[in-house]
Amino acid sequence: MKLFFFSYNIFLIVMYAMASTSCFFAYSYSKKKIYLYSGLTFIFFVLDEFIIYNAEFLLYGTNFNLNVIPHITYPILKILVGTGISIFYLLITFALLKKGFHIKHLLFPMSFFLLSIYLTTLPESVMKLECFYGIQQLYIISLCFFYFYYLRFSTNPDYKASIQPYRIFFTTTFIITIFIALEDIVTIPNMGKLIAYLSIRNVNERNFSEDILSIFFSIMAIKISYKVLHSIFYTKNSSTYTDTNSSEFEKQLNFFCSTYNLTNREKEVIHLLLENKSNQEISDLLYISIGTTKTHVHNIYRKAEVNKKIELLRLFQDTVVNN
User: Fold this and answer.
1) Cα–Cα distance measured from residue 301 to residue 297, given in angstroms and rounded to the nearest whole number
2) Could you tell me which of 123, 122, 129 has the C-alpha nearest to residue 188?
3) Contact 188, 129 (CB under 8 A)
4) CA 167, 231, 169 angle in degrees (round to 5)?
5) I need a surface site. Which of 157, 177, 247, 309 has the fewest CB within 10 A?
């Protein structure tokens, strides 16, 4: 059983490292700060996992006293790592919501930081431990409500449509966080009995629901980063349009739009498509909803009789070359 949990710990560290690396690669090519924030978040996940490993295998692995009141191990390290994760969670949320981040917004995670420090000064008790970890779940739930507030009450339909795709992500995060809190409520007061019943000593620092949330974040990060990198390299290898602002390109674009009867708005959309912009980026730049953007792209494909962006790029090249 000890070997299983050791392997499990290594698996999590490797997954976080892969997620962090993929995010940094995505940031280096896209220059979107959300990938930088995500990559740094996973680095803090790795640090947190090392703290858990040290507590489970070196501190308690062979010397766990079932009669000792549960207490916070390495409180300073946990507070620093937890605060770092909280700050990056906030930055990621603001990036997804397209909200400007200011120094004053740091008051939110700093209030949880100060509360965590205060809790470490209290006498050891089950309630103290519940509160210490509970405020972390409360923080994540608050960020989820922050998203749902804008989704529900924003009066700008285009803005609501632009953040709608993140609904599943925040809903899943909210649900798993509730399970994290429930697991703490059940296991912390009964940790001694649980360890004695299962005859294992390497789970006293572990919340499996929290691991599920971290794995969910990792899978999402790797998946999205792969799509970003694939899109960039795929289009770079198939497109020769490095200067889309030249007068020559403008003439070529006008000819192409005239040939396929594209509207002025569709001309703006295809211009951005040739710059390798995603639907979301086109939506942001033209101040239209993501749904409207997809409709324009679909109409362009239909008029040009193509099914993919790569086919559109090749058709554009063939059309202007033969002109």
Assistant:
1) 6
2) 129
3) yes
4) 15
5) 247
Per DSSP, helices labelled H in 98-125 are 107-120
DSSP string, 262-313: --HHHHHHHHHHHTT--HHHHHHHHT--HHHHHHHHHHHHHHHT-SSHHHHH
- Whether domain 2-234 has CATH 1.20.1070: the reply is yes
| Fold adopted by 240-321 | Arc Repressor Mutant, subunit A (1.10.10)
**Dihedral Cα 115, 73, 213, 153, nearest 10 deg:** 0
Mean predicted lDDT score pLDDT of the chain: 85
**Shortest CA distance to 265 belongs to which of 300, 312, 239?**
300
Question: Residue 120 contacts by C-beta under 8 Å, 6 or more apart in sequence?
Answer: 72, 75, 79, 132
Banded model confidence at residue 92, pLDDT cuts 50, 70, 90: very high
Predicted TM-score (pTM) of the model is 0.73
More confident residue, 302 or 73: 302
Burial class (CB in 10 A: 0-12, 13-18, 19+), 39: buried
